[in-house]
Specification:
Structural class of chain A: mainly alpha
Helix content of chain A: 55-70%
Largest sheet of chain A: none
Order of helices and strands of chain A: HHHHHHHHHH
Distance between the termini of chain A: 57 Å
Number of helices of chain A: 10
Largest interface: A-B, 38 and 38 residues
Number of strands of chain A: 0
Oligomer: homodimer
Chain lengths: 210, 210
DNA sequence: TCGTTAAGGCTACGGTTGTCGCGATAACAT
DNA sequence: ATGTTATCGCGACAACCGTAGCCTTAACGA
């Protein structure tokens, strides 16, 4: 006994293509596969994304991709994971309305110009990994956005006790609803309109507990 | 010439499994297939839904189902189409808040207890037919909900000029967001909470134009 | 340097998915 | 009644998807 060899510990991050021998080759494989995934997605859209196309494009063997990422959702989850390890902070424009408008513009761009976001949402219905990655990503972002509400309270714009998460969701959800679920005609100043509504609502105390 | 034979008119509703000879056999086939689709969905979930399973279950040949409905999205679109031809009216409880809460309870049930809704959303990412059917369904429902806002204006609860669609979306979108996109822990009184926020916002004039 | 072994490459296989062409059947018009 | 033809059933097919087994390569530790 004694020395606990790392034979079967490693928490379990094998989920996102993480390897126990990440040096050299494995890292190169991951890089090639993720690059190929993103390139394929950008060039030919979500429907073209399959393990096979990514494998061929990356030059990595089919079975290897299957083993490490399991399915398309796994690939996208890893892409998102890599992209979301950043120092993103919510905008700080000096007013609640300004902050919310800025956030919504980012959401708008993500939903209309960035194929990864929509692809991940689509994949989340067919892959538990994708769903989990998306949930984690959004939770993280909404947590970081708590500052927006906190600052607004400090400035006296909105009542103390305002629930930051509810406020942020009220500000962004209609955008997702229109663009992702309804796929309605995209009105270019919808982000502003929705953000302003949410700000008004917050000022009226719509998101205070109880 | 003369007599315009119905050889190739029929607008184009062939999209939803509609046949040009709907009598007897075709009608029976449609019935069996739609019944099988719904039964399969209820019993084994969306993932189990494929043209093949539905065909086998219904006793209709694979190729026939492929020809008339094209893909799973087409099947679900037809199921929805059949189910949504009803006389649904938005609730009329006597107050805006009451109406919104009632609507949200219906949405909540649809998203947590009715497999068709979520299945259709999932399918809408992979099938143009499903996306179109969903868009049409929601447009229709939001249109009917305009009464809720109209009555609230008449009662003097909210300002004239309130945009009914924006109000309704503000009331329901956070629910879709939490349950469908985030798949967050389902808080049983979330529908009420969100509806009340929207009512407060509407009273504060958050949804008036400009 | 060298042994251990995780990870990648390869081949092969069975199941599923979507399509095509043909012949049979029955809906509808005359 | 009878002819036309839309629709269905059928068999076959290629393409794709996911997995298993086995061998090779190279990461890592001693």
């Amino acid at each position: 006994m004694a020395s606990p060899r790392p034979t079967s510990d490693v928490p379990d991050e094998s989920v996102t293509g993480r390897a126990r021998r990440p040096g050299g080759r494995s890292a190169a494989v991951r890089r090639r596969v993720l690059d190929a995934t993103l390139a394929q997605l950008v060039q030919h859209g979500y429907d073209s994304l399959s393990i096979d196309t990514v494998a061929e494009r990356s030059g990595v063997h089919r079975t290897t991709v299957y083993r490490r990422w399991r399915d398309v959702g796994g690939l996208l989850a890893d892409v998102l994971h890599e992209a979301s390890v950043d120092a993103w902070r919510p905008p700080d424009t000096g007013s609640l309305e300004g902050d919310l408008v800025a956030v919504n513009h980012e959401v708008y761009v993500a939903l209309t110009a960035d194929p990864v976001t929509v692809a991940l949402i689509a994949a989340s219905f067919r892959s538990e990994q994708a769903a989990e990655a998306l949930r984690a990503f959004w939770t993280d972002r909404y947590d970081r956005c708590a500052d927006v509400a906190r600052r607004a309270v400090e400035r006296g714009e909105i009542p103390a006790g305002t629930d930051a998460r509810r406020l942020l969701i009220a500000a962004t959800a209609p955008l997702y609803h229109e663009l992702v679920l309804l796929r309605a005609a995209t009105d270019a100043h919808l982000p502003e309109l929705v953000a302003r509504s949410a700000a008004t609502a917050a000022r009226a105390g719509a998101f205070t507990d109880r």
